[in-house]
Amino acid sequence: MTPTEVRQKYLKFYEARGHAVIPSSPLVPQNDPTTLFTGSGMQPLVPYLLGKNHPAGARICDSQKCFRSGDIEEVGDNRHTTFFEMLGNWSLGDYFKQEQLPWFFEFLVDEVGLDPKNLYVTVFLGDEKNNVPKDTESAELWQKLFAGKGIDAKVAEIGSEEDGYIKGIKEGERIFYYDAKKNWWSRAGTPDKMPAGEPGGPDSEVFYDFGTPHDTKFGEHCHPNCDCGRFLEIGNSVFMQYIKQDDGTFALLPKQNVDFGGGLERIVMAATNSPDIITSNHAPIIEYLEKASGKSYKDDVRSFRIIADHMKAAVFLIADGVKPGAADQGYFVRRLIRRSVRYADKLGIAEAGFAQVVQPVVDMYKDQYPELVEKIQEIEASISGEEEKFRKTLARGKKELERFTGNGSVSAQDAFQLVTTFGFPLELIIEEAGERGIKQIDIEGFKELLKKHQDLSRSGSEQKFKGGLADTEEKTVRLHTAHHLLLKALQIVLGPEVHQRGSNITQERLRIDFNYGAKMTDEQKKEVERIVNEKINEDITVVRTEMSKDEAERLGAEHEFGAKYPDMVSVYSVGPVDNAFSIEFCGGPHVGHTGELATGGKHFKIQKEEAVAQGVRRIKAVLE
Prior knowledge:
The chain folds into three domains: 3-278, Bira Bifunctional Protein, Domain 2 (BirA Bifunctional Protein, domain 2); 282-461; 474-623, Threonyl-trna Synthetase, Chain A, domain 2 (Threonyl-tRNA Synthetase, Chain A, domain 2, 2-Layer Sandwich). It is built from 21 helices and 17 strands. The protein has helices spanning 3-15, 46-49, 97-111, 136-147, 161-167, 180-183, 264-271, 277-281, 283-293, 301-319, 328-347, 351-354, 358-365, 371-374, 376-404, 412-420, 426-435, 443-461, 474-494, 522-537, 549-554, and strands at 20-21, 59-67, 83-92, 119-124, 154-159, 173-178, 184-185, 199-209, 231-244, 250-263, 500-505, 510-515, 542-548, 568-574, 582-585, 604-613, 616-623. The strands form three sheets. Strands 1, 2, 3, 4, 5, 6, 7, 8, 9 and 10 form a ten-stranded mixed beta sheet that branches. It has a four-stranded antiparallel beta sheet with strand order 11-12-17-16, with helices on one face. It has a three-stranded antiparallel beta sheet with strand order 13-14-15. Helix 11 packs across helix 15 (376-404) and helix 16 (412-420) packs across helix 18. The termini are far apart.
């Protein structure tokens, strides 16, 4: 069973049970300042889980694209990927446990064809300290479901993950109670860590048993949450049931939600009974790499896995508007491509054949994500351009390495400079130094320097995110409205083909990235400033309207590059929607009238205009 088949079965299954199928959100969050990427299926749904009405209704489902940059170094084993899809279904105050658990069990067993004897589940043990009860309801439901398939599922209390390695699994046990660290969900973590007003609840996870031998290096005995590889979590139903009170106690939420997430690729692994996530989900890519290299997958499993995962992730990120670069999201695309180039070289794949791996990725996903077909030439050009830059970097790095290795060793600072300044990978430093007979490399010192560098970069990037605001303070909101005026002014001055390619708005300034092939002249910048200030002085009403996506597109509403939208969208217009100066798909917030931007005698001013990538310019502007 392929990923496409599982995805189609899942969406049809829940659509037949009253769920509206919504499109995947972009890989770059539009209104979340805390992260650079969409890393889970529920991330775009948080406002609705907290009480906001979803325009598609109370039952929704989707397959959400996800990217986790923290897993880049882990890729190469049999179960880590950076790009994956998360199947999700949500009940926003509608159905609850009695429907959710039977439906998911039915989907796995009757639709996907999994043998129920290979399924194991976990439920919430309860938290006596916080007076949150054990989730006996879920355990009893699971017993009935297994009994319906002729399985006598015994229940066991495990407790912590560490306890699992001591207790193991007894004969007939299939349902396991774990503590809050494993089977409780809230944004803050366990019940102890939750602030007043935070919602949370127990969850129930489903694991697939591959039946592989237990590796005792992880612990004496195996259990569902063991990391040895025998068990694989394939789905988690979160029951948003409680809210923490001011006095620290928990009360039931008036509207109880279901938040389910199941890894598409992991379910495919279970459906094919294959513990290798790459062969299960990247077959067309592997076939191309074998043909291009003349080697078999088994000849260099790690190289094949890294290229297959990284190139798939790069294709989707570029399609969502992220170009390879030195900062923010672009840094990770660059890193994915450059690591792939290194491993393609190991396989002996000719330079001319490297970017052609885009085609099998597109072929795999063209039905679900047709935008990949539309943008394939742009994606291939972006990857080829980054490959060319990297090869020049490698040539410079080798020269620098000659200089650094003159004293017979490579210091931590030298390795750090090679990696951060010249983009020379650590594994290549080790390889090249070895060829020169140099074995003394301060790798631990390098890792310490790199960690400090990453920590600084991470804290700096927390306020940078595409399409959203750093906060909702009044100054930031004013600059958000100025941002809309600026984009329209750029289209008037530079041409209607100009569109936003990135955004960051703080209390101090706005930043917009946009596609344009040349440096703006002083006259163009002055004209843009004049138009924006003119619209501010006209004190135009800013209007928010909920409308169908088709109607918004008919009105010419500007929207996020590469994004998919639900059937009903929020639109902000400067002026009435049918005769607006500016109109955009946007969740807000904005000022009520453009005249509010002039509070205190302020006016719009462009501080800087510069290039950030090929064909992409950046403007930083203020209200001063």
